[in-house]
Amino acid sequence: MELPFAEPWKMKVVEPLYRSSREQREQWMKDAGYNLFNLRSEQVFIDLLTDSGTGAMSQYQWSEIMLGDESYAGSSSFFKLENVIHDLFDMPYFLPTHQGRAAENVLFSALIKEGDVVPGNSHFDTTKGHIEYRRARAIDCTIDEACHTDEYHPFKGNIDLQKLEDVFKKYPKEKIPLCIITITCNTSGGQPVSMQNIGEVSSLCRKYGVLPIFDAARFAENAYFIKTREKEYTNKTIREIVKEMFSFVDGATMSSKKDAIVNIGGFIILRDKSVFQKASVFNIMYEGYLTYGGLAGRDLGALAQGLMEGTEFNYLEARIGQVAYLGKKLTEYNVPIQQPTGGHAVFVNAKEFLPNVTKEEYQAQTLAVELYLESGVRGVEIGTLMADRNPVTRENRYPTLELVRLAIPRRVYTNNHMDYVAAALANLWQRRNEIKKGFRIVSEAPILRHFTIKLERIG
Ligand code: F0G
């Protein structure tokens, strides 16, 4: 018999989980203004809100915590991390930051000004937030296939070259400081970008004098998909693929809370000295001195180790395999999801799931709340609430897709947990026609509203 797959790790420390009753969850959800971000973690049984900062560190990462050098300047932990970053990405300049959005804040302070446009593939919400906060505009150039959830495409994160060139032709070069390639593309379903597309986008950027920059939060998962889906890369190692991916860009912002499997951390890498020098000034103002950037020395060490572990093929196979496992179960139950499943999450198509709820009543949010009430599983809305209002007209922006993301923390849950999640959604799917009413907004913040929004039930 062929031996089955098994994870290349075992558990040394465990955290208890608490199961609650539906009555308790009804009350907690009401008290939370029907916003899953407002729940306390003890009120959640399986937490798939995010894969960010929620991974389980290895014994080697925990030992780095003890080895951390807390010197304000010139810490040895910094140089340990710098060595790993140079080896992996082959980029000359590096700045640590406390997380991904901090890296965006620092780099965009150096590059983006009012009136600019920043094309890319479905910019993440904080990325878009940092662009719009500077009165610039993010333009989505993702391929249309990304919106057809039941059609298979191996690289639904790809950028449409025609859409990108249209942006390059429409606006003068001085108004396009950078193009952001998000790997993998979180908003469209954790979907990868092919090496071919990265190369073509990079050439187009060079032709028009625009900086190609990665939002690299899930770069290793993207490399895994290149290895397993793009023929020429089958025999290359993940690290060889990573190096080639980064050879096409001039820099990257990184949220280390994802593929570097740490609970906090981020960084910027750059090829150009003058951009690095400009960004360094903002880093010192917003984050901290150049050799710690808002992190403790111990965090830098754990991050260095996590980057090595996160780029191991065996680890990625188990991690992405678990996401695919949940996707397969849901597909067997006929639950409509973004196909194929992405690297870090399964995205449930809420428009198809709840046809009786209108988009004005927030379909994806309604489904996320129903899932929590049914099971204590917390997912997150990737729909109209997250898409926010148009900064000029203040009208709701209705995205093409209304999704509930089930993001899977790294090395944390077992496949029994995945079975539980799938069963909960299957139950909801069976009684989907009974769900007819959604929510209205009671109060919201002027930007990034989904984090703090308060809602009430309609009817
Ligand atoms: N870019 C991408 C693609 C992301 O997914 C995130 C965060 C960030 C940037 C910002 O990084 O959180 O370290 O400041 N995504 C998390 C998520 C929050 O749940 O997808 P951060």
What molecules are bound to this protein?
ligand F0G
Q: What's the assembly state of these chains?
A: single chain
Dominant shape: globular
Percent of sequence in beta strands: 5-15%
Q: What's the helical proportion of residues?
A: 40-55%
- The CATH superfamily label of the largest domain reads Type I PLP-dependent aspartate aminotransferase-like (Major domain)
The strands making up the biggest β-sheet line up spatially as 2-8-7-6-5
* Uncertain regions spanning at least 5 consecutive residues: none
What is the third-level CATH name, the topology of the largest domain? Aspartate Aminotransferase, domain 2
Class of the largest domain in CATH? Answer: Alpha Beta
Computed over alpha carbons, the radius of gyration is 21 Å
The first-to-last residue Cα distance is 57 Å
Number of domains: 2
Q: Total number of helical segments?
A: 16
Largest sheet: 5 strands, mixed
Total strands? 14
| Whole-number mean pLDDT | 96
Structural class: alpha/beta
Helix and strand element order: HEHHEHEHEHEHEHHEEHHHEHHEEHEHEE
Under the CATH scheme, the architecture of the largest domain is 3-Layer(aba) Sandwich
